[in-house]
Amino acid sequence: MATALLCHIEQFDPAVEQWTQYVERLEQFFVANDVTGEDKKDKRRATFLSVMGRDAYNLLRSLIAPEKPSENSFEELVAVLSEHYSPKPTEVMQRYRFNSRSRKEGESVADYVAQPRKLAEFCNYGNSLDKMLRDRLVWGVKDPSIQKKLLSEPDLTLVRAIQIAQSTETAEKNLREMDSNRESESKRVQYVADGKRQQYGKGKYERTVRTEQRGNSGKECFRCGRLGHNEQDCFHKESVCHNCKGRGHLAAVCRKPKTGAIKERDDIDWCRQEAATCEANHRGFRVG
């Protein structure tokens, strides 16, 4: 009785996967479904031809014509397609690619370490592979802080080099995050401080600024007779003079002759009253 295959393997697509990787997954698919051994070679080939996809099957038929795919073993068919999809590179060229591979901008140390190891597949470095990978990491990581620590390490091994590079990368990332948080907190504090100053509005802060600005003027105001502000800022620009009935000044500084009503008053008390009114207004409290 035939048993159903476990799981599923999609057809081969050279645009998204290398042929060698597809074959490796396919072999594990056979193991998972117990399609191994000499007694199951026909089933292994039939499964392969069924799942490989239309494009790959048409290509295979063209490569082995006039023979048919069913006349060859699974291993023979894989070898034909491997020669087409993934021809073995020359050792010299592959070593050139290996020694030219440097870390790209934005690439993590972990991702970078995996790339030279992949390129070393056909370099035939043998027992010296770990040393070549270690040297490629030191030369190609392109980070002065990481390189400095790697070069200062005695008896540096590949495992130790990877640990140092990754820990340094993590520390630098954490430091940037901390600096960013401190900058954000500083901006927030400044924003709150600015907001509090704005909330004063017409209150104490604004009055202080106005007082400091008015303090720059040493000229006596012709509207009220006091110092410390300009006539344009005087609160008595619209006041009515009790002496001449004119607008824009107080009776205490009126330049016209005093009227009978004003003469009957005590000039000193009158001036003091007008001056007090002016001072109160200039302190930010409108009187009358």
Report what the structure shows.
The protein is mostly helical and 288 residues long. The chain has three domains: 19-85; 91-174, Non-ribosomal Peptide Synthetase Peptidyl Carrier Protein, Chain A, CATH 1.10.1200; 215-282, no CATH class. Helices cover 57% and strands 0% of the residues. It has twelve helices and no strands. It has helices at 19-32, 41-51, 54-64, 74-85, 91-100, 109-119, 129-140, 144-151, 158-200, 204-214, 260-263, 267-282. Helix 7 runs parallel beside helix 9 and helix 8 (144-151) packs antiparallel against helix 9. The protein is elongated and about 135 Å long. The termini are far apart. The relative contact order is 0.05. The model is unreliable at 211-216, 264-268 and 284-288 (pLDDT under 50).
3D shape = elongated
Return the CATH topology of the largest domain: Non-ribosomal Peptide Synthetase Peptidyl Carrier Protein, Chain A
CATH class of the largest domain: Mainly Alpha
Give the H and E element order.
HHHHHHHHHHHH
Estimate the mean pLDDT confidence.
81
The rounded distance between the terminal residues' Cα atoms is: 110 Å
CATH architecture of the largest domain: Orthogonal Bundle
Strand content: under 5%
> What's the tally of helices?
12
Work out the radius of gyration: 46 Å
- Helix content, binned percent: 55-70%
Q: pLDDT under 50 segments (min length 5)?
A: 211-216, 264-268, 284-288
Q: How many domains in all?
A: 3
For the largest beta-sheet, the strand count, sense and barrel status come to:
none
